[in-house]
Design goal:
Heat Shock Protein 90; five-stranded antiparallel beta sheet; 3 domains; single chain; 14 strands; Beta-Lactamase; alpha+beta; Arp2/3 complex 21 kDa subunit ARPC3
Length: about 550
């Protein structure tokens, strides 16, 4: 008799709950709980729901009501804690008392008890077991037990007792077994909502990662310049095409601070790259250094342009606005709210790429300057000693003097002019050989030079001027400082999947240079190698005082990129 009316009442509850769970007012369920600002809407909704349960109930003898009021208080407690659960129960209980009837007090106490008990479970499990707290089984079990307690309160508090027994016989089974269905179905709806949001989040994340990856691939050609965002029209056009393709918007554009750099999509026939900026929205974004959103975009080039809405996001590099990224929709397509967020994210990625490109250019300029420094760095003592050696050899052996002059000319020519930043090991050894010929003529029998190159390594590529400063250090600070015979050795070999080149002397006089002091050539060589192939490679020094100094250059097995 009561089953169908209670089921109808429960259906009304579930309709309201479904709408509520998908509304903006539904609170996020976080393990740290809700602020009172977020708890208040929960209280108001479920208090209204429990009061509605009183009025949708089925009136019985003596003012008793068979109802679904427990659904609201149990859900309020499970979602928001014991305080809200108890308050919802008290509110609905007070309203139930106002309706009268000999079971009113029992109903009020039971509803409050059910809300409080569910809230205590929230306090216990919200941080540790949210999955258990939001389970349909938990919601059903709490309501089932609560309704059993409800019947106990009716027997304990309602008088006359015989009438209470009669009422319990009528309402017990329907309320005990039907009411738990409401919270259980609510939790099922909540789980579906969560899965939908997780699915949307996963798709959004996949979209963002895919778009970012394709953007970064296209942005590899970006180069920072004095002009800012102008990183090459081809690269900008490719990035614009990728963004439009991935986002499905009507058009994507890029500008510098003065002109359009690239355009993809609707309006490409009149929004041409190279055209000076004329759109008010773009100028406003550049001047304000802020995002500009307009749903009434007016094309400055032609009244027939179908574009009607736009998000303009400034591109910043090092605190300087260097251009904009623009996302357009046609007039009949409303701009989606996420387009602004998407535009800001894309601008952040591109700004980072431009900053990285500018840094790479600055680093490359620095390294180029250092190479020029090595090229121009001819030790005046070496040149003075070489000329004195030539004077001495000229008197005794003119033919030998001519050979030394050729070596000196070759050495100076290679020092002052190199066609590439990369050379083969054979070319480096030829350059160093000219230097060593002159030094051997100077030191005579006091200097012994050995060169040993493992087969197949002559063609290995390395940065130009890698060996010359290292060999010069070995002669000048090693052999030149030794009292007895000196030995210098160049040894190239493979080891552990890498190419190693040792430059040794037998003086063992190496001292680690102070910051900014001597050793500039070695530091430049080390930094150039690391910049080209990574920190795993570079220059290291081993010294045994008065016995050995070995400078080792470590390169990849295939050498540096040419």
């Amino acid at each position: 008799m009561l089953l169908l009316p209670l089921l109808q009442s429960l259906s009304v509850f579930l309709v309201f709950c479904y709408v509520y769970t998908w509304s903006p007012g539904f609170p996020p369920l976080r393990s740290e709980g809700l602020t009172w600002r977020r708890r208040l809407p929960v209280y108001l909704f479920f208090a209204a729901l429990t009061i509605l349960g009183n009025h949708l109930g089925i009136p019985l003898k003596g003012g008793a009501i068979a109802n679904t009021r427990a659904v609201g208080s149990v859900l309020a407690g499970l979602l928001a804690g014991p305080t809200i659960g108890a308050l919802v129960g008290i509110t609905a209980g007070a309203e139930r008392m106002a309706l009268g009837g000999f079971t009113a007090l029992a109903g009020a106490v039971a509803t409050t008890t059910e809300g409080l008990a569910a809230g205590l479970l929230h306090r216990r499990w919200a941080g540790r077991r949210p999955d258990l707290l939001l389970s349909w089984k938990t919601a059903a079990l709490v309501t089932f037990c609560g309704e059993i307690v409800h019947q106990g309160f009716v027997l304990l508090l309602s008088r006359p007792f015989d009438d209470a027994v009669e009422i319990v016989k009528i309402i017990a089974l329907p309320m005990i077994f039907l009411n738990p269905l409401g919270p259980a179905l609510f939790m099922v709806m909540l789980g579906h909502r969560r899965r939908v949001y997780e699915s949307i989040g996963a798709r959004s994340s996949a979209f963002a990662l895919r778009t970012a990856r394709r953007m970064l691939e296209a942005a590899r050609g970006v180069r920072g310049t004095e002009g800012g965002a102008e990183g090459g029209t081809e690269t900008a056009a490719e990035i614009a095409r990728v963004l439009r393709e991935e986002t499905g918007v009507a058009a994507v554009g890029f500008t510098s601070t003065e002109k359009i750099l690239a355009w993809s999509g609707v309006g490409a026939d009149h929004h041409r790259p190279g055209t000076p900026i004329a759109a008010v929205t773009t100028r406003r974004s550049l001047n304000r250094r802020d995002v500009v959103v307009s749903e009434h975009f007016t094309c400055p080039f032609t009244p027939a342009c179908p574009l009607g809405t736009v998000v303009v996001v400034p591109l910043e590099v090092g605190g300087e606005v260097v251009g904009t990224v623009q996302i357009y929709e046609t007039g009949h397509r409303r701009l989606r709210p996420q387009n602004r967020t998407m535009g800001e994210g894309l601008a952040a990625i591109l700004s980072g790429q431009l900053l990285a490109a500018r840094y790479r250019d600055q680093e490359k300029l620095l390294l180029t300057s250092e190479v020029k420094l090595l090229q121009a760095q001819v030790n005046p003592h070496f040149l003075f000693n070489a000329l004195n050696t030539l004077v001495a050899v000229t008197r005794k052996d003119p033919d030998r003097a001519r050979e030394l002059l050729i070596h000196l000319s070759t050495f100076l020519r290679k020092n002052l002019k190199r066609d590439s930043d990369v050379a083969t090991l054979a070319e480096e050894l030829e350059h160093v050989g000219s230097y060593l010929e002159i030094e051997q003529a100077r030191f005579g029998d006091r200097l012994l030079v050995e060169t040993e190159v493992e087969e197949g390594l002559a063609s290995v590529r390395l940065p130009t001027f890698t060996l010359q400063p290292l060999v010069e250090n070995a002669i000048r600070h090693g052999v030149g400082a030794a009292l007895g015979p000196g030995r210098a050795r160049i040894h190239a070999y493979r080891q552990g999947g890498a190419v190693l080149i040792d430059v040794e002397d037998n003086a063992g006089a190496y001292q680690a240079p102070a910051a900014g002091g001597a050793g500039l050539g070695m530091r430049i060589v080390d930094r150039r190698i690391k910049n080209l192939v990574g920190d795993t490679y570079g220059v290291s020094v081993t010294c045994v005082p008065s016995e050995l100094t070995r400078v080792t250059v470590r390169l990849p097995a295939e050498g540096v990129p040419g």
